[in-house]
Amino acid sequence: MTARYFEDLREGQVALSRPLLIDKDELLQWARRYDPQYFHADEQAAKHSVFGGLVAPGIFTAAIWRQLDHSVNGDVRYVCGTGWDRVRWPHPVRPGDQLRARSTVLKKTNHWRNPRWGKALYGYELLNQHDKVVMSFRSHNLVERQPPGRDTRKRLTDE
């Protein structure tokens, strides 16, 4: 896989991952260990919650997003993420849902201090099988600029 640098990213560029099935046993095991609220970790008690059944913890959902996003953006030469904002979970994730990650490059700017990096603002969404957004947020990321002497002509013909 060819690495993508800051210069390879285009504002408005969208990537969509493959779907991933949410397994009830995996969700329960994770929730019981990390977020044991009854509507995440107890199938019977969850039936009496505002959700009417078992739902995934938001942090579990974020971990699923990370896995799926990596499958379509793992080749980006990220330095690191510097923050998330506008994080929302508008619809619950349930066992049996099939989730896909969608990313959009919203904005690119120069790094104010380090010329080897650029700043890329991404919009991320996690969608279920009904195309309902189950998680959304914006992520501020530092991305490596291409190394001096890199032949960009080959990259453009590879696409």
Largest beta-sheet characterization: 6 strands, antiparallel
Percentage of β-strand residues: 25-35%
Oligomer: single chain
What overall geometry do the principal axes of the alpha carbons give? elongated
Enumerate the spans where pLDDT stays under 50 for 5 or more consecutive residues.
none
CATH architecture: Roll
Task: Please tell me about this protein's structure.
By secondary structure, the chain is an alpha+beta fold. The protein has one domain (6-158): Thiol Ester Dehydrase, Chain A, CATH 3.10.129. Helices cover 26% and strands 33% of the residues. The chain contains five helices and six strands, in the order ββααααββββα. The protein has helices spanning 24-34, 38-41, 43-46, 58-73, 152-158; strands spanning 14-16, 20-21, 78-88, 98-110, 117-127, 133-144. Strands 1, 2, 3, 4, 5 and 6 form a six-stranded antiparallel β-sheet that branches. The protein is elongated and about 60 Å long. The mean pLDDT is 93.
Task: Give the topology.
Layout: E1 14-16, E2 20-21, H1 24-34, H2 38-41, H3 43-46, H4 58-73, E3 78-88, E4 98-110, E5 117-127, E6 133-144, H5 152-158
